[in-house]
Amino acid sequence: LDEFLERRRRSGFGRFITAADIERTSPILVTDALRTTPGVRVVPAGAFGNAVVGRGGCTPGVVLDGLPISGGASEIDMLVRPQEIAGIEVY
Q1: Is 6 helix (H, G, I), strand (E, B) or coil?
Q2: Are 86 and 80 in contact (CB under 8 A)?
Q3: Rounded (to 5) percent helix, strand, coil in the chain
Q4: Greatest CA separation found in the chain?
Q5: Residue 27 CA to chain centroid, in angstroms?
Q6: 3-state class of 8 per DSSP?
Q7: Which of 20, 28, 30, 47 is found 20 to 30 A from 37 (Cα to Cα)?
Q8: Residue pLDDT tens, the chain, 91 long
Q9: End-to-end Cα separation, the chain, in angstroms
């Protein structure tokens, strides 16, 4: 959280979703935890799950445990469960 706050202080924007925030909303999928995040849309992604779309229709990058995930925004529901996440940074 401290690292996020420093990045937010320098950039002037960003949102951090904590594990407590995730637990409080009891999401079934990771994208469910992102539905109320400003600037983020959650849209159906084929047969399973959803995709995360940013402003202007851009596909945001996803980093999972420090590893960039190619196509992660469209596959995040298949990569990790909400209960396994300690926090989500959104820019």
Answers
A1: helix
A2: no
A3: 40, 25, 35
A4: 40
A5: 12
A6: helix
A7: 47
A8: 677 677 777 777 778 888 899 999 999 999 999 898 888 899 988 777 788 888 888 888 777 777 777 777 788 888 889 999 888 888 7
A9: 14
Query: Can you read off the two tokens belonging to residue 53?
Result: 């779309």
Q: Which residue has the tokens 């539905």?
A: 35
Amino acid 73 reads A
Token pair for 37: 């995040």
Q: Which residue has the tokens 């079934």?
A: 28
Q: Tell the residue number behind the tokens 């940074």, with chain if given.
A: 89
Which of 39, 38, 20, 30 has the alpha carbon at shortest distance from 62?
Answer: 30
